[in-house]
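Task: complex structure prediction.
Instruction: return structure tokens for all chains below.
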Amino acid sequence: MLQFIVLGLFAGSIYALASLGIVLTYKTTGVFNFAYGGIAMFCAYVFWQLRDGWGLDQWIAIPLLLLVIAPLLGLILELLFRLLSQQSAEVQIVVCLGVLAFFTTIVNLVFVRHPDDSVRNLSTVFSHGSFGLTSNVSVTWNEAGTFILAIVMGLGLYAMQRWTRLGTAMRAVVDNRDLAGLIAVNARTIGRAAWIISTVFAAVAGVLLSVQENLVTYVLPFLVIYSFAPAVFGRLTNLGLAFAGSLTLGLTINILQKYGSSGSLAKFETSLPYLALFVLLVVYGKRLTEVKSSLRATTSRAVADPWRGYVVGAVALILALVLGPQVFADSTVGALAQAMAYGVVAITVVVLTGWTGQISIAQMSFAGVGAFTTAHTVASLGALYFPLGVLFGILIAVPVSLLVGIPSLRLSGLFLALATMAFALVMDSIVFASASISGGLTGLDLTEAKLGPISFDTATSQYYLCAVALGVTGLFALWLRHGPVGRRLQMVRDSPNAAATLGASLTVTKLAVFAACAAIAAVGGALLAVTQQTVIPANFSFDTSLQLLLVVVIGGRTLISGAVIAAGFYVVRLLPVPATVNKYLPLGIALAVIAIAQEPDGIGRVMLNQFQKSAALLYRIGRRPRTPVAGRTSSPQAVRPSV
Amino acid sequence: MRFGGLVANDNIDLEVAPVGITGLIGPNGAGKTTLFNVLTGLNRPTSGSVAYDGQDISRWSPHRRARAGMSRTFQRLELFGGMTVRDNLLAAWEASIPGGVMGRRQSEGRQLVDEVIARLQLGAVAGRQTGELPTGIGRMVELGRALCTRPRLLLLDEPSSGLDAKETAHFKEILVEVTDPEQAVQSEDGRGAPAVLMVEHDVRLVMDVCRMITVLDFGKRIACGAPDEVRNDPAVIAAYLGEPAA
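Output:
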């Protein structure tokens, strides 16, 4: 038992460092650093490169990392997020996720050139060996050193906040940003200090974590996400609670490991931090208030005239149906079918994030529910029952979405994003990891699916299925957007207070959208399953949900065409493009997301503006100038589709 | 029967006349906006209760209160900036009726919206995005939006704030017109002019349009009566001029 307590305190102290860093930037600058795991991992790899790669002495490498590289990184991040401070909360969250994607891809590009490099050993920075605590419990110097270091750094941060000028100024900024400015506290300096300290903590946590868990690109960021739970436990503002929560979390995980080293409990301990994060968010609920300046969210502009969208959409659909299979090779047709299935899921991101302003990082999890349910149904009942499988998928996805939605929709933007993230990670670590549900790492087969007499076993038939699905979903969403439903979503997004005081129920609206999007995502997932013919958990992981969100944001999160562009990004990965394209595409995506503040509505908006400009040019010929008459009861713009 | 409402708070008894405009004035920080938030359900009162139309509505959600006929405007504009003026009004009408989002009776809503646009002289901007409109027109849109919910009690939170003298005069003219029972926008279900409770800084505007005025100071009601009575009330003079009450 004592051995597990030692291990627990050791693990907990690393989480503590990470959660302190997250809390610090959140409370002083209002930015929740989703990218923390990426930053920590990047710093760990830099340390490895300096010490083990280039053979620098450890006592040169450590100061170089902690006094030069990490602070520099902190300054760059501070600059980035200061430039974003005028943007809406959604944009900030999305850019932060883009930074996370940037660091994870850059590590893969720079440090993991060869598959053999994907797992590297990092030896301890402390002395090797161990000492005996009791006759049969020994503690390594690494564990002891880590624990003591965490305590020292934690107390140091506390003392700094308490007794130094900088700390006092920080607390003033936390209390009231505007007033702090008036008493000659420079919020920018404070922000810089917070980012530097936070990044240094990330570097320390990253190195210590890598010593324990090795340098593994696909594990480290997730281990840092463990520390989100204690950070939220401290309500993202209380350093002491975050520290205590981290140690508790470390202890709990390790004690569970003692009792549940085999069987179903083994899975539980890896998902415990995510479950804890979700439960904490739900329990705290409205008491979690966002540290944000009072800046209004930028609103997206609804397109006044939907007919152009209908026409373009319908023409594109018909062209795709008629020409697609004739023009492209069979393998391309198959890839396009997959991409269009992906596009169906992407539309749910547009509806949720773009139109309702709710960030969900779990849409691929709902797609996974649809995919696995369909695969199971077809496997046990036969190919003819494919439509029934899709229906089952919807019937499971909707209650699951309500399970997530009912408690978490009381949360504001950032916390909802965190809750969906926790949900996706729980799905990954419990549901999709269970072999009886997902068939394990190799997944389930879905080689045959039929809709009545039509069999979807060729690339062409799958192509038709997915094209129709994407076209119908897209046009239907567009139609809703320009009717009462669209107006309701826009009102809830633009001004929740006004919407409520006019009679719109926020809860019902958000919940209905959330559930509908889960249902559509489940259908998209089932289509993905049909086109991929196997359903693999990795294709529906948190990572894929994150990627989906990022490409939709680049494509244009307020436009259906944004979802189509997102599908375009997906298809590139499947086509025989030069290897360098696929190698650098994720980096390009991450950088494009970071730059999204320049055009928050993405590529789709740029294209639409161009389109409207050229259309306007054509329209101008032979058209009377229209002068609005004051007091006229119906203006020409009032023509809208009948509903 | 037309609406006759009574709104109560732990410290504040407020009676709103069933017709015409009731004014609520008080120095800065007197608790006027907070009172509005409590009335409309955006803030939950820490103690005490809110009664409306004889019912205790303290635990009602904001949208339920709105459906019961309570509508408001905001001191800091809360327009749906991404929508046109017309869509703002239409959305408000849809929000106010059960199942409005399902698109039933759309023609009825359009008719009401058209009439409100005409009455508030918003025809010229009906197709414009509200996010790009000046404050003066924005105030008018918020008034129109509230009217489109066919309110029985209309709460106006500092409608003249941010307006210049000309805009205020225009607003006053329209407000008097749409709240006059003789000229009010009639909806199909027979609801006519709403009772109005107006929080306002501009004392002259209040004196001009209100039949009854309640004066708040430090969360307490210090006077209540017709404009002339209130104007000469020693407690009111003290609160505004800072002299001890005689």
